[in-house]
Amino acid sequence: MKLKNFFLFHQNRNGDDFRLTYPTEEKREQYQQERKKAAEELHKNVSPKLNDNFNLIRSIYTYPQNNDIIIRQFDLHAGEQTWKAFAVYIDGMVDRALISSAVINPLQLIPQVNSEITSGAALKDIVASRLISVNQLTTETAMEKIVSSINIGCCVLFIDDVAEAFIADVKSWEHRTVSTAENEQTIEGPKEAFNEILRMNTALIRKILNTQKLVIEMYTIGTESKTLTALMYIKDIANDSLIEEARRRINGVRVDYLIGTEELLQFIEEKTFMLTPQLLTTERPDRVARELSEGRIAIMVHGSPTALIAPTNFIELLYSPEDMYNRFFYTNMIKVVRMIGVFISLFLPALYITLTLYHQEMIPTFLLYTIQSAQANVPFSTIGEIVIMEFAFELIREAGIRVPGPIGPTLGIIGALILGQASVAANIVSPVAIIIVAITGIGSFATTNYSLGLSFRFLRFVFIILASLGGILGLVMGIIIYLAVLASTKSFGVPMLSPIAPKSKSLLGSTLFVLPIWKFEQRSDFLNTKNNKRQPKISRLWDKPKR
After folding, report:
1. pLDDT tens, residue by residue, 449-464
2. Which residues of the chain have pLDDT under 70?
3. Whether residues 146 and 230 fall in one domain
4. Contacts 24+ apart (CB under 8 A), 497-500
5. What's the rounded Cα separation, in Å, for the pair 411 and 385?
6. Does residue 23 lie in a domain region?
C-alpha cells in the first residue's frame, strides 16, 4: 500500500498542501496602491520634524523586518539645547568603524565645540563644516536621492529641526582582490584583471592611462536597481559623435534591474539577431587602456568584471591582448596560425562532407580508398557521423566547463578518449570522422573571443547542413550570405568588416598584420578620431640618421 501511495498522486487530506494562489483583482488593486504609495514617498523632501523622517525611512525600507538596515538613534547636547538625531545605513556595505569614528563620535563632542547653538541652521553649519570628518560629505533634501545614496553604501544622518540630510561616503564592500585574467590569459604583458567593484576598475584604468584627458561619466540604469554604469573615453581623441551615440543608447535603456555588463550589451547592440558579437568584451585593464588610446569608448557596469569596447570589427574580435607585447614577426606568425584555426573550426567538417559526398574526384585516390574502407562497416552516413561526433564534442566541452575545477579537464580528456575509441571499435563512426572532429575542436580553441567562438560553433552546424544539401555550391552560398550580412552590420557606426570593406589605409598596418611598434604612426582612420597621429614619424630619436 505504501509503495502504491508513493507512485500514485493523491490529495493531502490534511489540507496543508502549498499552492501558489493567483492574485485576485482586489489584491492586484491593493498591490497597485502600494506601489503608488512607495513612489509618492520617494518624491517627498526631508522634513524639519525628525519623527516624520524616521517614519518615512521605516516605511521605505520595511524596517525592522529588513534586518540589514541599521538605524542608530542618539541625542545631541549643546549647552542647554538637545537635538534628537538618527543615522541610517546598510550593514555590509559600509565601514562601521569609520561611521563610529568620523560620524557619530564627533557629533557627541558638540558641547566641547560650541555650547551656544540655538537653531537648526546653526547646527547644520557646525555639523557640516567642523564635526563630521569623512572625506566626502554632502547635504540633500530630496528623499529619492537620499535613498539612492543609502543603497550604494552611504551613511545618512537626520537631525531634528534640520530640513536637510547629511550624506557621508563610507562605502566598504566585500569584494575580490585584483587577480589575474582567466579568460584572456597571456604570457607577455600585464596580468591584472577587473573585479566586481566599479571604482576599483576605473582606478586600474587610470593607473595605466595617467592623463587628465581620460573622462569617466557615471550613469544609473534600472528604475529599481539604480546600477552604476561608467562611460570612458579620452576627450581629445574619441569622436564626439561616437560619445553622443553612446550617451543616447545608455540613457535610452529602460529596465527595472540591470545586473551585468552582458545584459547591457544586449540592450545597446544594433542587431539583436546577428550571430557575430557587435561589441568587444574584455576583462583586462591594459586592453581597455589601449583601445581608449586608439579612440574607442569603454563601458563598465558595477558588479561585473568585464568591460564593453565600442566600436569593434571582425578583425578586432580575432585580436589577442598579447599581440602587441610580442615582437612583430612572432605576432604575425601566431596570427596566421590563428586564422588557419578559425578557418578549420568553421569549414573543415563541411568541406569533408562536400568532398566525400559530391566531389570525390578532388580527393587523391589512395586517400579516397582509405576513407571508403573506413566507412564500409559504419551504419551511419557521412553526415550522420559528423553531426553525432560534433554534438558529442560540444557536450563534452560543456560538461568540462560546468563540473568543479580539477575534474573538468580530466572529464574532457577521458571522455573524448573513451568515447572516440569505443565509437571506432564499435563501428559507430569511422576513424576519419574522429580525426576531422578532433582537428575542428582544436582549431576552435584558437578563437580568442568567447562570444565569437560561440557564433562559430553555431555557424559550423549551419555550414554542415548547407554542404550536405548542396555540396560546394551550398557551402559557398552560405559563406557569401554570411559575409553579406556581416558587411551590412555596424558597431556604433563602424562596418564590421572594416578596414577590408570598405577598404582603408589601416588595412596592413594595424589590423591584418602587425608592423614594428615604431611604425604605428597613425590611428585607425575608420574611427575618425580627433587626433589621427599616434606618434611622430621618427619615434626612435637615437636611431635618427645624421645629416
Report:
1. 888 989 999 999 999 9
2. 1-18, 20, 78-80, 109-121, 174, 404-417, 505-511, 545-547
3. no
4. 497/313, 497/314, 498/313, 498/526, 499/313, 499/315, 499/524, 499/525, 499/526, 500/315
5. 22
6. no
